[in-house]
Amino acid sequence: MTTETAPPAAKRVPTERTHHGDTVVDEYAWLAVKDDPETIAYLTAENEYTDARTAHLAELRTALFEETRRRTLETDLSVPTRKGGHWYYTRTIEGQQYGVHCRRAVRDGETDPPVSADGAPLDGEEVLLDGNLLAEGHDFFSLGAFDVSPDGRWLAYSTDFSGDERFTLRVKDLTTGELLPDEVPDTFYGTAWSADASVLFYVTVDDAWRPNRVWRHTVGSASADDVVVHQEDDERFWVGVELTRSEKFILVDIHSKVTSEVLVIPAGNPTGAPAVIAPRRQGIEYAVEHHGHRFLILHNDGAEDFALAFTSADAPGDWVPLIEHTPGTRLEAVDAFANHLVVSLRTDGLTGLRVLPVGSDDSYDIDFPEPLYSVGLDANPEYRTGQIRLRYASLVTPDSVYDYDLVTRQMVLRKQKPVLPGPDGRPYDPAEYEQHRDWALADDGTRVPISLVCRVGTPRDGSAPCELYGYGSYEASMDPWFSVARLSLLDRGVVFAVAHTRGGGELGRRWYDQGKMLAKKNTFTDFVACARHLVKAGWTASDRLVARGASAGGLLMGAVANLAPDAFAGIVAQVPFVDALTSILDPSLPLTVTEWEEWGNPLEDPEVYAYMKSYTPYENVAAVDYPAILAVTSLNDTRVLYSEPAKWIARLRATAPQGDYLLKTEMGAGHGGPSGRYDAWREEAFINAWILDRLGRA
């Protein structure tokens, strides 16, 4: 890499805070003042420095972007989904950043979803919403709600033009194409229609960005007349709202990290008072699905990996067992259809689907052929159907949409994401790649799964470069996924691996519990164990291994940089939660209080404070030889503030100045980075070019 340009100097303005008798000095707290011109000037200077330091990769970035673009069918059409008398789908158009949301009337005798040649509009198409038109004049665009009323007349949708996830909600008349005067600013995700489509429920957030209120809006009225249906005053909890698939009930979901409560409102009586399915009990989580005369209850009451029960829909009370708890089989969701239930689950680190025919004990699991894969239900809006749509992928199999007949058990492939020929002109052939499941041994003897993919014939003598990805928080599972952009790495000889560390949900609830709160360090030591194992097993060598993670996975990146800097040639930390202690100590920050049941409450508990301080990356920067680090963030991120990686990079430079540290800030984006697909491809090309440079494959 070039060395002519000096990094910008971050001024030091020491500020102190004291908790539990411990005084901490933060020299870079001033960077959290977002509207200070000095902060913006510093971030701009960091971007200019990063541009200069990576200028030699410009040609490679262009090549990687073009490879992704060349392999992608830019003008395409999703598999239409039937709801009532229409097929709903989304089209993408070559050269345009965002999708076009459409529908077409179902024709007589039409049972299979319609198709079009080369992604062209369907005959008789009705455009509901064109994201490209909405995004005109804006650097960022995100769609929050997209909710068609049960009668198909109204479309509720919401837009965000800055990346801060504060959406403006609007209602469109699909019969005339006109926008109603209804407009509600500062809404959150989640809407639900009443049965007659006269009422729309939506969610707003408090000053700490916690979804805390569910509102009722009468279509055609002013938002000032809207009524609060539920206000959640316990700052540990957040709320959501949805209409059941049966369209019989509005569900108000109330959750903390470990406790749930669900309220129901008859969709036919939207002004009725909400009724409680079961009062909240600390540590008991449950979710509700309506099915005929009963509510299905997926819960963890005496069931670590969850069980399925039901209660009366007319008078909710005792829970009657339907699927007993089986340790090691994590039940994740239940979807109800008129004559079948479909349970989403995971066992042995793999996702699965179990079908329960109503009135029969003949339940069965749907089989899939690959040793590693990810499967789940796709959009299934129809309640009275004998067919479900599911989505399937693996590390070598592109995203695939299937329709599955619940009676005949026949599965029909409706569409597999096209992968066009790469730069060599050859079509994509999954047989040219191989995927593996390997296991690392953690320091405490725990076996940690690793998923890997590489080109066939990749050497196992330690000479291959490798990217190791990790997350490990919130019980989120990094199930195998297909990536077109990743092919550019694999074709350059890179091994791609995923470390399924504790703190994730891959091996059930216990796997999650063993990587949170006062066991959080297991996430970090598991990741290092995976890195060491890849070297020991000959997959790669430590000087040819780059680690990557985002958000809470960015915390993981910062932690392992401190824990085992010798294990990596480079680290990519995207929107990284690297100043975790500072954030979790401040209840006024977005999401802090709701996070205390994930990380602990360092304000009240000195043990939690000491434990977090011992691992949070910013607090533990030391004068050691760090690997090269690339931190990528967004100015308008409300989940992980841009100031966390900005402060981290500044402290790294001051404490270990011999290292190579870069900060890249998207000045008009949020937590998910750039919003348009081409902009997202360019960002991925930027990161992958940096990775290849670190791996000696630029």
UniProtKB/TrEMBL annotation:
User: What keywords would UniProt list here?
Assistant: Hydrolase, Protease, Serine protease
Transmembrane intervals: none
Q: Does the keyword Plastid apply?
A: no
Residue ranges of every copy of the Peptidase S9A N-terminal domain listed in the record: 8-416
Which residue ranges does the record assign to the Peptidase S9 prolyl oligopeptidase catalytic domain? 481-696
Gene3D superfamilies reported for this sequence? alpha/beta hydrolase, Prolyl oligopeptidase, N-terminal domain
Any Gene Ontology biological process: proteolysis
What InterPro entries would the database entry show? AB_hydrolase_fold, Pept_S9A_N, Peptidase_S9_cat, Peptidase_S9A, Serine_Peptidase_S9A
Q: Which GO terms describe its molecular function?
A: serine-type endopeptidase activity
Q: Which family does it belong to?
A: Belongs to the peptidase S9A family.
Q: What's this protein's name?
A: S9 family peptidase
